Every structure is written in structure tokens, then in C-alpha cells.
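Dear colleague,

Following up on yesterday's call, I've attached the two folding results inline so they're easy to grep. Please treat them as preliminary; we haven't cross-checked anything against experimental data yet. The first protein's sequence and C-alpha cells come first.
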Amino acid sequence: MSDMLIRTLMERLEELINAQYKIAGLMLSHETKGLDFSVSTALDVLYINLEMLDLTSDIIGMMSSVSDEYIKKYAINLGAEALSWSGFMLTHIEKSSPIFIEYIEVENEPVTSRIKNLAYLLENLGSKLDPFSFEEIIRTIDMVSKAIKYQVYMAKKSYETME
């Protein structure tokens, strides 16, 4: 049962990674003249990244109950890729974003650095991670996600009061 659930979550994470890939392609194709996103598009990208963070946390949280070693390795690699994309995209949408991503910190470290460090950890340690390491990664991803969600919530409230 848990193998089926993790596969479903991984499929959704793959869809979100593909969306990030397309957005990055759009950004790179307009690199010479610059591509400014609208605030609503930047929010959409933020929501995609938040969902990716939450899915990555859920998938890593299920690792102990997954029996198939291939699924475990693939899930870890997919999680590392999702975190890498999040670190990349959050940095590149900041000028269009209604929140100041560079000033969001988790445990005295910028969220983008935290995300990149988590991606590095997953990528390099992979399935050698012990359950305590997985718990620490999940805890950190959840803190990053909550910090960004709070900033997005505050930005939305600010926009609502301006209307």
C-alpha cells in the first residue's frame, strides 16, 4: 500500500518538476531582454514550489515504510531534484514576487541556502541516510515551507487591504 501511495506522490512531484523546467526554459529564452513575471505568475510559481517542498517532505517521510530499494533511490533522487529546482526558481522569481525571499531565514540561514544544502545532502548521501537524518531533513523542509507560506499569507493580506 505505501509503495502505491509513494508512487502517486512521486508522479505529482515529477509533474511539478516538469512545470519548473518549462518555466526555466521560458526564462532562459528571454534572458537577453529579461523576463518579468506578473505578481500572480510569481505567486503561482511560489505555490508550485511550496507544493514541491510539501511533497518532498511527505515522500521522505514515507521512506521507512517502502520496501522496494529502487523506489527508495528514485524517491531520494527526485527529492534532491525538486529541492534543487526550488532553490533555483525562488532565487530567480524574487524580483517579481510579492515577498522578499532573500530575507526569509530558517535557523539564521536564508531559505534558498537551506534548500540548496538539503538538496546537496540528499544527493550526496542518498540511501545511506539514517532515519534520524531523514527526520532532520523533513523538519527543515517543513520549517522552510512554513516560513514561505507565512510570508505569502502576509503578502496576500497586504494586497487585500490595499483593495
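Below is the second protein, in the same order (sequence, then structure):
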Amino acid sequence: MKRPLLALLVLTACFRGGDVVEPATVANATPAPATLRIARVAPKVGSVRVETTVSRGGGSDSRKGTRVAVLAVDGFAAVKEKITYLEATGAKHPLEGKSFILTRVDDQIGVVATDGTLPGDEELVRADNESMGEIDSTVLMVTNRDFAIGTPVKVPAPKVLSPGSTITLTLRAFDATSATFDIALRMPDMGSLRGQMTVDRSTGRERSATMTLKVQMGRETRETTFELQATTE
């Protein structure tokens, strides 16, 4: 999405009386850290996002994906989308190969098949897309906020997480098009999730992410790794 970005890359220079200060004068100065601010922008009608998620744990792998086209926008959220569930591997997804039109009006999500008929699995589709019509959770976390490389920042946890959950993001690197963050999530009832994600600076959405969920089950700690890849069309 071609929109102006609020990117603040700080390079300091010291002047005295209009002249550059001699290097010896500032030899012990601490340079300001590079900082970043990603502007929040509305999704673009007609944009298409393809996401693939691979989960590994318990001795098995599974892969699933979706293709989502934005059909209508209200503010910073898509309120009408066409979603297609792509071919899955490992644990099969019951919606695999099906397409739906989702529309949010107030707090309700309407679901119809692409031909306008009721598909019969509306509740499953709604449960799988309960945040549709709201601002994307990653966008909420990384946009309109100042980050400095290496400095942890606590950000609001998505509503779908249990009360008391906390998320901390640490900016590791950025360039003209993307930014990479370490992410640490603590959930009182489930355990912890740690990993790294790279977001697109033009949208605030993930390009890729790798995260490991650790859950304590009695004396046993179970780990599941999730890998996400996303592209736009």
C-alpha cells in the first residue's frame, strides 16, 4: 500500500557556533538509538493476502492456509471479506477448499457461500474468524507507537487472549520496507509464547513469524512451534 510512512531514523550531529565539534569532544557520547514509528493505515479494498501456517509439535506437523480478499473497509478495519481455505496437510481442516463471504455489521458476522446461499457451517466459519471486522491485532500492536532498537515495549494484548495476558515487543532491526521484532507473550492459563516476527511497514501486518508455545502440563512441558508466511497479491 503506497502511503507516507512515519519512519524516524535518528542520526545525531553536534554543532557549536556553526562549526562541527571536534571528534575528541564527543568521543564519550552515547549515540541515540535508532527509532521507528509505523503509521496506521486502512486496508485497501481489492487487496489480497495469502497466509500459510505450519505447526510442529507432539511428533506431527500440520499446514493450513487462507486467501483473504478485502471487499469493504470501515475506518482501519476490513468489514467485508472473501475467504478461501486452501489445501491443508497433516491435520485436515474441515473448511478446506471452501470459500465464504464474511460481513460484519455491529457485533454480528454474517456468513454466506460465494453464491449467496447459507453454507451450513456458518458457526465454524464465525468461530475461525471471530475478530473479522476489527483492526488486525498485529496492526494494533506495532502501529502509532514509538520503538527504539533493543528497548522492550509492553503493548495491549488482543481481546481474544485471557485476562492478565501480557505482550512485550522488542525492535531488533528495520529497513525501508520491513521491521523485525522479538515477541514475548505470557498467558496466565496457558503458558508462554516467544518468537520473532517481521512486519510490513506499509501495512503493519506480518510478513513472517516463528513462535514457540510452551505449556506446563503437570511435570511435563509441551512445546509447539508455529511458522507463518504471508504474501500479498
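For the second protein, one point worth flagging: DSSP finds two helices and 15 strands in the chain.

Best wishes,
A.L.
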